[in-house]
Amino acid sequence: MQKAEEQYQTLYKLQPEPVTTPEIKGYDFNQGVDFDALLKSYANFGLQATQLSTAIDLINKMIHWRMGPNEDNEDPNTRCTIFLGYTSNMVSSGNRDIIRYLAQHKMIDAIVTTAGAIEEDLMKCLSTFHKGDWQANDKEIRLKAICRIGNIYVPAANYGKLEDWLLPVFQEMYKEQKEKGTIWSPQSMIKRFGEKINDERSIYYWCAKNNIPVYCPALTDGAIGDMMFYFNYKEEGFICDILQDVVALNKKAMYAKKSGLIILGGGVVKHHIMNANIWRNGADWAVFINTGIQYDGSDAGAKPSEGITWGKLRIDAEYVKVFSEATLVFPLIVAQTFAKHFQEAKRV
């Protein structure tokens, strides 16, 4: 009987070679419950677990390079600028508290997000969100003045509380525009919101306190825009200049000696960060977490390598996409990166 190797060669015309990559292996719970060891085992787990492990490794590289490649080299010319992008549902969910932790300890350098992520952070300082039901009868809960975000319930009254809080802030900002010539941008508005909310539970309180810029190119796409629309009936000519922020974000990327991207979701937040990195011929490291697929041509679904063709990622960039809904994996990533390497991560 022919040996299997001979059959491959004679019958199938194959030349077998030994596989030298690590063996696929899972965690052995006979060793007890050790979450650190469990997550380390993901490196050779296979499928999306291995993608998650790669994401952890890349973010740890970003952290390591924030003040140079080693402890003895704190040359700011080697510093990695970390850009964090996320969609509004991240703030609707418990990931709001994970992001707040990063801002609180100055572990990131810039944020790009959407209008919902601004207003919902403020609303959570003024009221509460609640666990809901994916299968809720939406007609019934509409009659109960409850808004639904997946399995999260938002009392419609929260928007009234936001309006009561926000309109006087707009009035104050408008007065500064008229009397001092201040021209507000989304970033400077969000900084003022963070200062005024004065609540340590808020992401943007900490961003204002720690001078972390928050860019929101679609600030009018939500309740904040609705309230600007309403305010404009009373005080015409209130200006929000988006160009200021485009210039600031592009320059932040342009002057970054190394650039690391962490992007939860897609759409405007992903593209805005990646487009800014064109000005430096692409980012050095990138971690994408979303459930999009490439076949509809969407920005969220695009393979990371597509960004190389646009100059959004460097040709030699290291990157990974984790196909997952981000509330499942982002807390685990932060646990194994920023929180685990706390002293290094909070250095600036």
From TrEMBL:
<comment type="similarity">
    <text>Belongs to the deoxyhypusine synthase family.</text>
</comment>
<dbReference type="GO" id="GO:0005737">
    <property type="term" value="C:cytoplasm"/>
</dbReference>
<protein>
    <recommendedName>
        <fullName>Deoxyhypusine synthase</fullName>
    </recommendedName>
</protein>
<dbReference type="Pfam" id="PF01916">
    <property type="entry name" value="DS"/>
</dbReference>
<keyword id="KW-0808">Transferase</keyword>
<dbReference type="InterPro" id="IPR002773">
    <property type="entry name" value="Deoxyhypusine_synthase"/>
</dbReference>
<dbReference type="GO" id="GO:0034038">
    <property type="term" value="F:deoxyhypusine synthase activity"/>
</dbReference>
<keyword id="KW-0520">NAD</keyword>
